[in-house]
Description:
Distance between the termini: 27 Å
Number of strands: 4
Structural class: alpha+beta
Largest sheet: 4 strands, antiparallel
Shape: globular
Helix content: 55-70%
Amino acid sequence: MITMHPSRRGPSRMRAIAFSFFMLIAALDQAAKAAARARLESPVDLTPFLALRLGFNPGVTFGLFADSGAVGRWALSAVAFLIIGVLLTWIWRTRSAVTAVAASLIAGGALGNLLDRLRSGAVTDFIDLHWGDVHWPTFNLADAAIVCGVALLLLTVRGSDGRPATSTLGRAAR
């Protein structure tokens, strides 16, 4: 069972670290996207299965809602803003360092993509995983942070004995 306890210095230190991590994730994502937009004129093959290839996604995961226009852009932005708010509230209320880190990863990634959507109407993607001619949808650091945060949360939901672990999600919703 994965167990993390708040630091001996109290929850305020953990909160400060989690909120700093949240901002760091969003800043790193924005810096990487700016570099990709400025320098990726053509695809760059890094390995036989990894390339840097600039793309823009006006939708969400796998291009869903890409044709929804301005209404969709603002609706997706509003949903992202609400999700970020819920996650930041969860970070504030949790006593688990692992939960705080996971929520910071998700919220930081969501903020990075939200900033793109508000600025240009589409999210900048540039990481292309592929096997031969079979490509995974191009993604970015924000997407990777979100996936890692969700995976970390899933790891904390079940302990090694298979029993559900105690969750702090209910406290954040109250």
